[in-house]
Specification:
227 residues; 3 helices; Trna Endonuclease, Chain: A, domain 1; 3-stranded antiparallel β-sheet; 5-stranded mixed β-sheet; 24% strand; globular; single chain; 14 strands; alpha+beta; 2 domains
């Protein structure tokens, strides 16, 4: 007896009835490129909510996905999303493809590496120096694992703020400091003691010029506020 033929059942029967049916796409199949695109779109929305300016480089030849403007600096940011749960951790790698090999991100490529745990919508904001020595990144957002290497960077969006050393620039001030050393000139210098000769000088004894007091110079130049 031949088995009865079952009626064809589409995958969409058990899905949301309001969800559009796209037969040319495998919606239930994980795709690395689509995972990355989802995280990039989510990062754009998140950064905009925090008040950052965000731009994208033309084409895809650069090592970074976004240029982030924090008001004082332009930061190169690479975003990678993951939905891969292995051995109790979400994994991704801080690497990129070069021909048939993989290379690790360094300071020459990017400033920050941002990991996105897609199922939980949790972000890890890491300076690239954290990722370079150990490019295999493992996140434990679903566990109380504060001692794990990367958990201190969870939702650390303030890493992208302007650094403290730029506070003077933020206030519109530029500090200039000057100093002078003591130079020996010839006694019969036609230009006078303490000044370099205009031309060849006649032989004569060396002497120390009359001291010229150089006070510490600090010039504050206030920038004009933006209209």
């Amino acid at each position: 007896m031949s088995p009865k033929k079952r009626p064809n059942q589409s995958r969409k029967d058990n899905s949301d009835p309001n969800r559009p049916h796209l037969p040319h796409r495998t919606a239930n199949r994980s795709n690395t490129k689509r995972v990355g695109e989802r995280s990039e779109a989510a990062f754009l929305d998140k950064a905009y909510d925090f008040g950052f300016g965000v731009a994208r480089p033309w084409g895809d030849s650069e090592r970074y996905d976004f240029i982030l403007d924090n008001g004082l600096q332009l930061l190169r940011v690479q975003v990678k999303g993951t939905d891969s749960l292995r051995a109790g951790a979400y994994e991704t790698r801080a690497t990129y493809t070069v021909g048939k090999t993989r290379a690790v991100y360094t300071r020459r490529d990017i400033d920050f590496f941002v990991g996105h745990v897609i199922p939980l919508d949790i972000w890890y904001i890491m300076p690239v120096e954290v990722c370079t020595p150990q490019p295999m990144l493992r996140f434990y957002p679903h566990r109380k694992a504060k001692k794990m290497r990367l958990e201190g960077y969870k939702e650390a969006w303030r890493q992208l703020e302007a650094r403290e050393k730029d506070n003077d620039a933020a206030n519109g001030n530029i500090t200039i400091q000057a100093a002078a050393d003591e130079t020996l000139y010839r006694e019969n210098n036609p230009c006078g003691a303490g000044a370099p000769p205009a031309g060849p000088a006649k032989p004569g004894p060396w002497q120390k010029p009359t001291p010229w007091p150089i006070p510490k110079l600090e010039i504050l130049f206030p920038r004009k506020p933006k209209p």
